[in-house]
Amino acid sequence: MEPLVGLSARETVERIAAQLDRSAASADVASYLDQRDALRHLRRRFLVPRMADLPKADLSLVDGSQECIYLAGNSLGLQPERAGTYLMEELDKWAKTYVSHFHKVSFNGGVVTPAWDSLRRGVHGHLGGSRPWAWAENNIEGLMADVVGAKAEEVALMNGLTVNLHLLLLSFYKPTAARHKILLEDQAFPSDHYAVESQIRLRGFDPAGSMLRLAPRPGEHTLRTRDILEEIEREGDSIAVVMLSGVQYYTGQLFDMAAIAEAGQKKGCFVGFDCAHAVGNVELKLHDWGVDFACWCSYKYVNAGAGGLAGAFVHEKHDRDIKPALLGWWGHDLKTRFLMDNEMRLQPGVSGFRLSNQPVLLVCPLQASLEVFKEAGMPALRRKSLLLTGYLEYLIQHHYSEDPARVRVITPSDPRQRGCQLSLCFSVNVGRIHQELEKRGVACDMREPSVLRVAPVPLYNSFGDVHGFVQALGSALRACGAL
After folding, report:
1. At 21, which helix (H) or strand (E)?
2. Is the previous residue joined to 218 through a cis bond, with omega within 30 degrees of 0?
């Protein structure tokens, strides 16, 4: 179900409620939206835990056989249904093959043809099948590129997010006495903060003078785009790298990456983004926006499992002028990689940043998820997300608008400035509220000092989930004596 043409999420909900002759807060509205949701079948592509599966669910309060209300995709996405099948395929292949002794390689039209001294079944694992272990991640980089709005050759699936961020900063951060600062959010995710801090120290500079941290205005929770752009204009001659989140992890704010990239590059800065909370959540156009570099994890909205294979992006405009500072065998051109002559023939662009063979067992769940993204398409997911999160915002305002100090949404109200996450701020103890929600079969994410991060993910969440969460929240607040 998409918003009615020309109507906001609020107007859509109220129009449907009037049509049904029901309160806009009625469960009938959620049912109506779910029945007309063109993407509702995608929920079956994921394994949704039952209430009884949640360790803190109170089965005296909920029916353990029912699916839980899972709104924690911003922290850990659900397991794709095919992930287990793909993993078992590779474990089975591993059990039935072994690596034969490789001794030479030949070429036929650019195709690598290995030769082996022992049984050729060893080729089946490393160089054959639908997921050759030697380059399994390459086979799905086109799918990942579609999600981030890039060309396949601009994307590499490798390592973890912070490792990739370090590799990218080693090449893009080129400080001089005049231009040595890195611009980032004041409350950046700790991994980003530590990576930037250590990169500055590595180059012999002091973070106190080289870390330029952007804070919201007093009394505000989010950064104004105007303030970001003005800071870049004011300090740009001393900034080497602008390094911000795509979506801010705590507030859920979606930054205007296109405008930031343009402003930073106009001042001679490289511009990169940590897209951990943006990839799979909002439509990205990293190539068209001219972003210099980006990196992301895959276990949140991309549903590749805890510690999943991360991604990196380097714009093709840097194919020849930006080189990796650290080299590994997997950065060598595949056509001559197995000659073993120790003469580096570096792959251009982000492919040259590859260090080693990626674990095929991490490729499997990522492939399972990316196939669902391909089936759905990011534009359709984003359209549903706007209505789904708008519906959540509407219900929160409907129930708590008369007492905004008790439950406040600190995520921007403008849908263009947020993804699917709403960050709810409470004037009562958020830890107690979270505990009571867990008892009622709700999985969401708490962040100190006072925020619940609630993320209705369009791939697998329903409007019924959103309605159920708001009902559970009211019950939790009453249990805490807050209502």
Report:
1. none
2. no
Which tokens belong to 478?
């009453």
pLDDT in tens, 422-469: 999 998 889 999 999 999 999 999 998 889 999 999 999 999 999 999
- Answer for the pair 98, 122: CB distance below 8 angstroms, yes or no: yes
Query: Is pLDDT above 90 for 396?
Result: yes
What local confidence, expressed as pLDDT, does residue 96 receive?
84
Beta carbons within 10 angstroms of residue 109's beta carbon = 5
Contact 406, 427 (CB under 8 A): yes
Stronger pLDDT, 119 or 206, i.e. the higher one: 206
CA nearest to 454, candidates 468, 377, 414, 1: 468
What pLDDT is stored for residue 431 in this prediction?
Answer: 94
Q: Which of 471, 439, 442 is nearest to 454 (CA)?
A: 442
Could you tell me if 25 and 471 are in contact, meaning their C-beta atoms sit under 8 angstroms apart? Answer: no
- Average pLDDT over every residue of 53-72: 97
Q: How far apart are CA 226 and CA 341, in angstroms?
A: 53
Do residues 415 and 450 lie in contact, with contact meaning Cβ atoms separated by under 8 Å? no
What phi, psi does 157 have (nearest 5°)? -100, 115
Nearest to 126 by CA among 102, 159, 162: 102
For 245-298, what is the HEC assignment? ECECCCCCEECCHHHHHHHHHHCCCEEEEECCCCCCCCCCCCCCCCCCEEEECC
Contact indicator for 175, 238 with CB cutoff of 8 Å = no
With vertex at residue 42, the alpha carbon angle to CA 37 and CA 48, rounded to the nearest 5 degrees, is 110
Q: What is d(CA 473, CA 444) in angstroms, rounded to the nearest whole number?
A: 11
Element (H, E) at 449: none
User: Hey, CA dihedral for 443, 448, 449, 451, is it positive or negative?
Assistant: negative
Q: How many CB atoms lie within 10 A of CB 448?
A: 8
Give the integer Cα–Cα distance in Å for 132 and 149: 26
d(CA 287, CA 59): 49
At 115 the pLDDT is: 46
Higher pLDDT, 126 or 164: 164
Q: Tell me the one-letter amino acid at 188.
A: A
Amino acid (one-letter) located at 242: V
**3-state SS, residue 212:** strand
Mean pLDDT of 155-161: 98
Rounded to whole angstroms, how far apart are CA atoms 247 and 238? 25
User: Does pLDDT of 47 surpass 70?
Assistant: yes
- pLDDT tens-digit readout, 192-235: 999 999 999 999 999 999 999 999 999 999 999 999 999 999 99
